[in-house]
User: Which sequence fits this backbone?
């Protein structure tokens, strides 16, 4: 009887939210979010103006990716509570950003004659 009570009162693992973004989609949205943040930073605006521009660009990002901000936040919170999943997401994020940077560097490199 005590075992049954202990098991039933224990913390229950809830499943993922119904609109959870896949790890791949999280990476894609986070890459875009990083790019938006970097663009905003490069504008060197006062902080209040910078926040307004960032919010506008972030809203466009959500529209472009077809992801609601609430879905992104729920998914982010879900993965933050699962460190192994979040580590995979951040590893893929860093790899993707490094690849983008390498491609940009190659495109900007002067051609050799």
Assistant:
């Amino acid at each position: 009887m005590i075992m049954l009570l202990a098991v039933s009162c224990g913390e229950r693992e809830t499943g993922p939210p119904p609109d959870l973004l896949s790890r791949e989609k999280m990476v894609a949205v986070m890459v875009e979010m990083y790019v938006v943040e970097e663009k905003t930073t490069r504008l060197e605006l006062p902080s209040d103006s910078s926040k307004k521009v960032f919010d506008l660009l972030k809203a466009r990002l959500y529209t472009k990716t077809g992801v609601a901000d609430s879905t992104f936040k729920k998914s982010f919170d879900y993965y933050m509570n699962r460190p192994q999943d979040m580590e995979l997401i951040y590893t893929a994020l860093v790899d993707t950003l490094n690849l983008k940077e390498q491609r940009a560097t190659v495109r900007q490199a002067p051609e050799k004659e």
